[in-house]
Amino acid sequence: MTTDQRAVFAHGQLQKRSVSLLFTGSICGLAGFITSAVIGVHKFCFTALKQNYLGEPFASGNNYRPLTVSEMVHDTNSPEGKAFYAFCLMGAICILVSWYSFELRNVYVGDHKGICGCLCSWPTLRHYLPPLGMLLVACIPVVPPVNRLFGDTLVITMHTLGAVLMIGGYCITEIHCLFFSTNDSPDEGVHFKPGEKIVRAVLIFLSLFSGVVFQVCGILASKSVKWTCADIWREPTLIEVTSLMANPNTIHLAVEASKAMKLEHKMLYNTASKGCLVVKELEFWFEVLAGFFMILNMLAIWYYCPERMIDLPDKLPDLSKIELREQGYEDEYIQYGYGPDPGEDYYDENGY
User: Fold this and answer.
1) Sorting pLDDT into bands at 50, 70 and 90, what band is 319?
2) What confidence tier does 141 reach under pLDDT thresholds 50, 70, 90?
3) Residue 185 pLDDT grade (very low, low, confident, very high; cuts 50, 70, 90)
4) Structural domain boundaries of the chain?
């Protein structure tokens, strides 16, 4: 195998590796969103009605619904929390080490094109922003809105930044690739297979639209806390704790309520219903859809990229004869290496 053939093999190997890592990372991310959503929906919609801190069924007739996927999976010891953390962590790592934005022809826009002149190239932004954002989202949980301390608020801000980097960063770089990097010259710009551009454009705009609606619903949800149909959180009173202590069946509730009263923490008294519940569910599902369509767009890139069809030789490139002899191979194997062979006497004289 000649030097040029070895170089072609090495380059093809990097591209095949990039394709496989992109596919694996996308599937892991998709599994994280879908698995955690299915577990969470079953937990909050199809299980028996839970009780409030007084041991009474919620007057609304509904279990507590989290505002977002991030809030739903904030407990990493819960089934949905474990699934989301594991799959998203694997997905982010695979996408980060794939370097697909530099290896695949249907996304590489050229390293000379950047933000604000030469501050940072588009492939670099595409490579780092989404997976690092996914890592922030997976590793920094979002606790429910009540009882948040300063530290909680600070890390939730970091979590929000991660979500913006993941969804927003990916959408911006993909839109730039689809609509601002094409060129009539065969040597410049990104060129797409028939039908590829429309498929990727539809998916990325669906992701962007879902992200915008998610933000709008978040604003509505923050305003709906004052509505009568919203979740009701309140601090336990001494009378309530005393009443719970008087009943042997509710002593465990009295212990939790007394802890909350001491810490001045609020506990859930009633869950959302009617319009407030609709807003919460819309916010939850549009966050799921934003991530879902983003990952589908990655899978579309994998499906259409020409590098997916690269067929590497069945045999690895030969080692040099010098290397084979240094490792102690017999002469019958050394002859299949490349380059000169100084001979066995040379190595004996030089102490090999």
Assistant:
1) confident
2) confident
3) low
4) 11-207+291-312, 320-352
Own/partner contacts of 141-150, CB < 8 Å, gap of 24 or more, are 141/70, 141/73, 141/74, 141/75, 141/76, 141/81, 142/68, 142/70, 142/71, 142/74, 143/71, 143/74, 144/66, 144/71, 144/74, 145/67, 145/225, 146/233, 146/265, 146/266, 147/265, 147/266
Q: What is the C-alpha to C-alpha distance for residues 160 and 140, in angstroms, rounded to an integer?
A: 10
What type of residue sits at position 296? Answer: L
Place of tokens 């429309």: 198
- 221 burial (CB, 10 Å; 0-12 / 13-18 / 19+) is buried
pLDDT value for 331: 74
Long-range contacts of 247-254 (CB under 8 A, 24+ apart): 249/55, 250/54, 250/55, 253/53, 253/54, 253/55
Q: How far apart are the first and last CA of the chain?
A: 26
21 residue type, one letter: L
Bridge partners of 114, per DSSP, are 117, 121
Angle formed by the axes of helices 3-45 and 79-98, nearest 10°: 160
